[in-house]
Amino acid sequence: MALASVETSGCPSGLGASGVQERARDVRAFVQHDSGADRLELMVEGASCAGCIKKIEGAMLALPGVRDARLNLSTRRLRVDWAPGALEAQAIADTLTRLGYGARPFDAEMAQRSVDAHGRFLLRCLAVAGFGAMNTMMFSAPIWFGDDMSDNTRTLMHWLSAVVAIPCALYAAQPFFRSASKALLGGRANMDVPISLAVILTLSMSIAETMQNGAHAYFDGITMLLFFLLIGRYLDHSLRERARTAARELLAMQAVTASRVGADGVVETISARDVEIGDRLMLAAGDRAPCDGVIAAGVSDLDCSMLTGESLPVTGRTGDAILAGTINLTKPITVAVQARAENSAVAKLARLIEAGEQGRGRFVRLADKAASLYVPLVHSLAALTFLSWFVGPMLLRMWGIEASDVGFRIALQNAVAVLIITCPCALGLAVPVVQVVATGRLFKRGVFVRSGDALERLASVDMVIFDKTGTLTLGRPRLVSKPDADVLGAAASLARASRHPLSRALVEAAGPGHVCAGAVETPGEGVAGVVDGAPSRLGKRSFAAPEAPDSTDGSPELWFAEGDRPPIRLVFADALRADAAEAVAALQSRGYAVEMLSGDRESAVAAAARAAGIVTWRAGVTPAEKTAYVERMRSRGLHPLMIGDGLNDAAALAAAHASASPGAAVEASQAAADIVLQGEQLMNVPEALEIARRARARSLENLGFSAVYNLVAAPLAAFGFLTPLIAACAMSGSSLIVTLNALRMQLEKRPAA
Questions:
Q1: 340: Cα within 13 Å, side-chain hemisphere
Q2: Other CB atoms closer than 10 Å to residue 341's CB: what's the count?
Q3: pLDDT more than 70, % of the chain
Q4: Cα–Cα distance between 583 and 198 in angstroms, integer?
Q5: Neighbours of 515 (CB within 10 A)
Q6: Are residues 573 and 472 in contact, defined by beta-carbon separation less than 8 angstroms?
Q7: Bridge partners of 538?
């Protein structure tokens, strides 16, 4: 069989596209015109692997005038930019249709619904295949063991099997039929083509045998085949779709409403999408900024930690810039808008994340690499088997060699046996079943694996990059000095009137108590009030104790002055996680290079690196710089694992070869990560890497067994030693072997620290 090209596992396999012969819907109305370029965003149906990305982006870039084309598998979104007037937008949709993929204007909610619907459809097909396999066996077993069964009784059993198997098989095979038809209409062949051929030919041959009162029908074999194939397909789909897009989670964190101040001073609530440049917005204490801007009036403490990694709040005054996503902590302020929501810092960070996810989608999985060789070999062998048995005897007789004519029926039976025995059940299960066992083991250890190919990428990691705040450290300050109980209680009475993180840490250390009545907070300075009849202050040294000597250790601090008593310095620290140094040492002992990148100030980063045992570190790093550093490491041939928890880490997490995030991280960072670490333990990181390496070894063993099995079984089927029934049993046995091999991981000892 001549193939224009070869696709790998299940691509394209999307639902919803009614057929590639139809013209794609008109998309011209959805073109965006921006900054000297035209842009179209489409939702692609059927794209599910690295081969799809390469094929689609290559076809788009080949169109005249196209400057850039990016396909994100997480969102199914294809973005194409081209020179104005150089291309008709409809040509993009038509090209996707010719390639065998469905296309429609991008809608994030619809894309997620499509993914969920496909998972439910696979589960229904799996249930139907299981029902068909069990009930067909009920009629097949008497034939296998009933040596004295009459021909009429055997034919009746075949017909009863057919009544169950035919509708079950035709329904359960729909994922393979749809994928194969789209591939063939697009001029390609994928792994689902030989599967579909095996189903159709085996059913047809079994029906013909039953109608002719033949001894053999293979309804049981085909339902069993579909059942095992669908197990692998559903496991693979479930693991793939755990990886929800981080960009969507990040954009969901933007404020959806804004309080706009009109010319008459009246405040109205509007959608953040309706905010225009030049508008004035009021941010109350606790509000998140919806857009980038400049503080026009007011002074307040601002929490920028999720964007910059700075562990302490900064004081925002009139004229200071404020970025979308920043939380106003203490006093109301007025902000003059300088950029719309779609052009804010958060939106730009989301675009960085999508670019990283798109690049990660190019990763080719082990099963896909093996499958790229499978299709042409199986097609060629099945075709050669049929021709050898059907045409071979005629050619031999033409050359004067005696040969018996076996006929069309035997030739077809042997060719079908080849298709069945080489059907990629073991290949389809080889990797997903290992991944399920490994992810289950990690889940018991408090590690949640978000995507199927995450373990494969974790297995090839050779360097680990930590963020500081909230990753190596707990992400919240704690009081480390030990003042007297009465001093701590008095200071805490003032701290309870403030939202500042250091004040809250002081309150946590002091425990329950009363709030100082009449306390007044000065943003960026501190809190003043009367405690036990004495005027008291809590805050910066310049605010509470201007005469005290300046500290030189750079630790976060508050000063408390009560009446005429000497001021007391209260020192805080963002403590390392309890096992941070142990985890770093374990990684280094196993040959991983360990570094730290943080947006925090240099003194805090240096102290954390020293305590954790990390030699290479950088402070004051922006989100874009983190992403650029990770990409630079990958361009050098390294495979970095990025571990972070904030919005400022999300883009770097998406760009890294593999990524991890603590369970307390923001949702956008967790969505960008491959694994999520529950609890406060970092020793799960070296353990996850070790289990990932073991999983890769088991996967390679399974793939190796699948290859040996096919090398032995295929020639036996081709030479006529196996019937389709025996082939189906052998195929099922190979699936059972790879499953048992994967389950060995459950018996292995926990990796040593």
A1: 6
A2: 22
A3: 74
A4: 51
A5: 14
A6: no
A7: 527, 560
Domains of the chain: 28-106 (3.30.70.100), 115-243+363-431+723-745 (no CATH), 255-343 (2.70.150.10), 478-573 (3.40.1110.10)
Annotated catalytic residue: which of 38, 279, 301, 467?
467
Distance of alpha carbon 223 from alpha carbon 234, whole angstroms: 16
Residues 291-335: pLDDT tens digits?
888 998 888 888 776 565 555 677 888 888 888 778 888 788 999
227 CB-contact burial (10 Å; exposed 0-12 / middle 13-18 / buried 19+):
buried
Element at 61 (helix H, strand E): helix 50-61
Active site residue 467: yes
For residue 502, pLDDT beyond 90 = no
Q: What is the pLDDT of residues 666-709, one digit of tens each?
A: 666 666 778 888 777 889 899 999 988 988 888 888 777 777 77
In this predicted structure, the answer to whether residue 423 has a pLDDT above a threshold of 70 is no
Does residue 671 sit in helix, strand or coil? helix
Query: Which tokens go with 533?
Result: 């009849």
Concatenated DSSP letters of 488-515? HHHHHHHHTT---HHHHHHHHHH-S-PP
Q: Which residue has the tokens 């038809």?
A: 181
Q: What is the pLDDT of residue 667?
A: 60
Largest CA-CA distance found in the chain, in angstroms, rounded: 122
How far apart, in Å, are the Cα atoms of 82 and each of 23, 58, 60, 67? Answer: 22, 14, 10, 5
